[in-house]
Amino acid sequence: MQRRAFTLIELLVVITIIATLMGLLLAGLSVLQRMRAKATTERLLTNVVYAMTQYIDANPAFDATAVADLNGTPSKAWKYLGRNGNRYLELRSGELGDANGKRGANPQTADTIIDGFGLPLVVRITQGGLLNQRRLLARVEIASRAGSGAGAYPDADDLIWRFDADGSTGLSTAEARNVGKFWRKQ
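^ that's the sequence the OP posted. Answer follows.
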């Protein structure tokens, strides 16, 4: 009985089938990773929004240093929400970053909060009128770049929560009903 070996064509067909299946598997895994990062980021944003609400209630007027830090790149939101005597927010070290946005900073020295995509959260503050020589805030936006990275802010992928203290920031009729509370911008 003579043993028959596989031909080159048969081997190439099998290798092609295996490569196609691997490609489908890897594409599915990247979609799952993006979904996981988005869910992690949405949970984190919800916690940060809640902490920022408490911070705003306690500090309706931000001093110039706080505004500069919160508007900085990357934002130093952690300094005001979780450190320096403020305990509005508790995060794991994997959700914190240093001034360069590198993940895993010590909670005592961390500067920024890192989203599920590995990017620092963006905090933007628009100031309103004066009260006792301090500027009131008109708008706070807390956003995740949602993996879009260096593109223009905001873009369609960004996950944005907004707080409007009053109607002075040019709100549409639909947005005006959310004055005084955080709401998810679509």
